[in-house]
Amino acid sequence: MSVISVKSLFIIIFTLSLFLAIILLSPSTPFSLPSIPPTRKLDIWSVRRIVEWRPCKWWLQGRLTSLPAKSNGYIRVDCYGGLNQMRRDLCDGVGIARLLNATLVLPKFEVAAYWNESSGFADVFDVDYFIQQMNGFIEVVKELPPEIAFKEPFWVDCSKRKGQFDYIERVLPSLLEHHYISLRPAMSQRRDRYSQYAKVALCQECYGALRLTKSLEVKALQLVEAIPKPFLSLHLRFEPDMVAYSQCKYEGLSPASMEAIEAARGDRKPWIGEAARIWRKRGKCPLTPNETAILLQALSIPTNTTIYLAAGDGIMEIEGLTSIYTNVVTKSSLLSGEDFTRMHGNTKAALDYYVSIDSDSYMATYFGNMDKMVAAMRAFKGCYKTLFLSRRSFAEFSSQGLKGEELMQALWKAHRDDFVMGRGSALPDCFCEFKL
Ligand SMILES: *[C@@H]1O[C@H](CO)[C@@H](O)[C@H](O)[C@H]1NC(C)=O
Ligand SMILES: *[C@@H]1O[C@H](CO)[C@@H](O)[C@H](O)[C@H]1NC(C)=O
Ligand SMILES: *[C@@H]1O[C@H](CO)[C@@H](O)[C@H](O)[C@H]1NC(C)=O
Ligand SMILES: *[C@@H]1O[C@H](CO)[C@@H](O)[C@H](O)[C@H]1NC(C)=O
């Protein structure tokens, strides 16, 4: 009897150790299965993320460096283009002004021909809030001292400079000589030479110092309240100017769209032949509403989702989206006609921005200034449901001949991996990667 029990004990131990060995030696043990669902049963937002971007502690919670005892002069930042482009330039401008130990004058927001309007900085943003939020980061004045108040600032154009551009070397001498300069930040600047306090001022300006004027905020809130919840804010850029600018050619457009694009082209001719194929595969072509609808479906966004179109009324071929996603709303459908017709481009852009920051989720079909600003502000607020739809993956997979379910599966995988790893949003210097 004892012999049998020893024998069975041996068998039990042997079996157990064999089982243990299998568990420990197999390359993928049951304990380390990836948490990423392999299929697209759930929507993209329910995928578990590994990395997210948050505002870096060094500026959000860091100690402030005291301002210099003596200012080197006054700087006005001159901003041009669309609202979010001006905002980006203001961000950079504040960093430059702090780097140069200058005093900031309220920025000039230019009347851009494209937007056809006159909204200046104070028409869109709350000036007192701006000054208060920049307190300690940089000195800001509403009025110039009398001895220079009558002067036009000396204009330093940095915007066209490419490559290495150092503001202390190139701009400080002008500031010291003229005492009051205006500048437009260069596209590429040597931020590596920025002092820590200049970077801190830049981040604070970009993400912590701007809010809409009271009257605009009231309007924006009305708009948000009118949208059924939850909703996805979608920035779909398929307007004639955008398509013309991209130099891409599209098949299957209506004659009206073709005409609108041709009218916007000017001397920017579309690429043709092999160059066009390469251009498209590099992800340079705006997604059409059709393609966007395929992408949203690939990401398992239900077709009855409420979608706010954060864009103007000029989107072409919109039926490609609205025939599949049937709950699409726009500003013009939600605001009263009178409200809407009185609004300027900047005001409308400000509303889209506001709604997109407050939406449950945000997706962009392009990687423009608004998209970058919205993505950063959403990260600042801890809203993680933000995604850039990949034009490059779409072009790549379609050129491989993928269609239907196969195409969607490939698109799902590419976007899922970006979302999990926090890739594709390219948040600027003020944000840090955080392992979840
Ligand atoms: C700005 O002031 C700091 C001291 O507050 C000084 O270290 C720095 O060199 C100054 N920079 C310029 C460009 O004047
Ligand atoms: C620009 O605004 C002016 C005055 O409000 C108007 O007459 C004109 O038609 C507008 N132009 C465009 C292109 O919207
Ligand atoms: C969008 O899809 C519809 C239906 O499949 C098609 O008729 C139309 O040409 C497509 N438009 C574009 C811009 O691809
Ligand atoms: C969308 O459809 C699903 C299932 O058909 C339903 O559970 C959900 O409530 C619907 N959502 C909206 C916003 O209508």
TrEMBL record:
Origin superkingdom: Eukaryota
Cellular component annotations (GO), alphabetically ordered: cytoplasm; membrane
Pathway assignment: Glycan metabolism
Pfam families: O-FucT
Designated name of the protein: O-fucosyltransferase family protein
Primary site of residence: membrane
PANTHER family in the cross-refs: O-FUCOSYLTRANSFERASE 13, OS02G0726500 PROTEIN-RELATED
Membrane topology: Single-pass type II membrane protein
Keyword terms: Carbohydrate metabolism, Fucose metabolism, Glycoprotein, Glycosyltransferase, Membrane, Signal-anchor, Transferase, Transmembrane, Transmembrane helix
Locations listed in the record: Membrane
Family to which this protein belongs: Belongs to the glycosyltransferase GT106 family.
InterPro entries named in the record: FucosylTrfase_pln, GDP-Fuc_O-FucTrfase
